[in-house]
Structure formats: structure tokens, C-alpha cells
Amino acid sequence: MDNAQIRTQLTASFLAVYGCAGDGNMIAAYVQVLGDIPVEVLRAAYDKVLLECEHRPVPAVVYKAAKGLVEQNSGTGKLTWAEAWQEIEEQMRINGLYAEPVFSRPEITEAVKAFGWRNLCETLSKDMGIVRSQLKNMYLEICERQENAKMNSYILGKNKLLDSKINLIGTKKP
Question: pLDDT (tens digit, 9 = 90+) per residue, 134-161?
């Protein structure tokens, strides 16, 4: 059985649980949208979604499940805010005001830089709750922006628009 047949069979079996196994258009749509996911990861993502979703999920849910599985396995996922804050506190304790902090993820570095390392280190303990909340918002916005940028690059690349002479609003580049 070739890769396309395996994907179609996997998808039909997945959708059968939700009563949609006979819908060839739906199967084809799932296969097309999720076509870049390796078969082994797709199988695992389908298993995960079957255990977590009571109603038929859209392909985006399967994609997020696959992405989460890969990120967890490779250690490339985003840190939770609690984990990021723990790193920030540790760097404040180790380095203090005068040494350059080193963080495990670029999004933490970007959030701390945007807030200001000196400002963070000089915050009074009574104000640390407010600062932590502000920094959390910055960190989460940076993470969301990075995820959005990655998805946009993926979609543009998949549709061969990144290197074309068409920009995002549909006009031709000079």
C-alpha cells in the first residue's frame, strides 16, 4: 500500500468513529490538509484526538495534536508561563542586575528584553506581582506571534507563495 492509500485508510478509520467514514469528500479534505504530517505522527495524532474529542474535530485539531506530540518528543515546544517565570527568577538570582541573563528559549529572552532586564531586577518586592503579570502578558503575546508567523510561513511555503512575485495583498512585486 502506498503512502496516499495509507493516509486515506487511516483517515477513513478515524472519521468512522464520528460516523463520517462514507464521506469521500471529507476524507479527501482531511488527507489533503494533513498531507505534510508523516504517517506515523498522523496515526498517533488520530489516536490522541480519538481519546480526547467527543465530537468530530476539524483538521486543525488533528494538526495541533500532531504538532504537540512532535514538540513534546523533541523538546522544542514552548514553555508554560510558570516554567518561563521560574527561569527568569533563577537568572535574577544567579546573575542579578549586572550580568547578562541566558534563557533556554528565545521568547523568554525577547519578553525580558522588551520589559528591560534592569527594570525587572530593580522591581520592589511589593510590585513584583504586577511586573510578573505584565511580563506574562508580553511572553504569551510573543509566543502567539511566533506561532502565527510559523503557521503563515508554512502555509505560504506550502502554497509556493513565499518565493513568488505576489505579495500578501495580491499585487505583483516590481
Answer: 999 999 999 999 988 888 887 777 666 5
Grid coordinates belonging to 99: 550580568
Residues 86 and 52 both lie in one domain: no
Distance of alpha carbon 108 from alpha carbon 85, whole angstroms = 9
Tally: H helices and E strands in the chain: 8, 0
The pLDDT, as a whole number, for residue 171 is 43
Phi, psi of 61 (to 5 degrees): -70, -40
Is 154 found in the same domain as 87?
yes
Q: Nearest 5°: CA angle at 8, between 156 and 39? A: 65
Q: What is the spatial distance between Cα 1 and Cα 106, in angstroms, rounded to a whole number?
A: 42
Q: Which amino acid is at 160?
A: K
In degrees rounded to 5, what are phi and psi of residue 95? -95, -30
Q: Report, in angstroms and rounded to the nearest whole number, the Rg of the chain calculated over CA atoms.
A: 22
For residue 95, give its domain range: 81-158
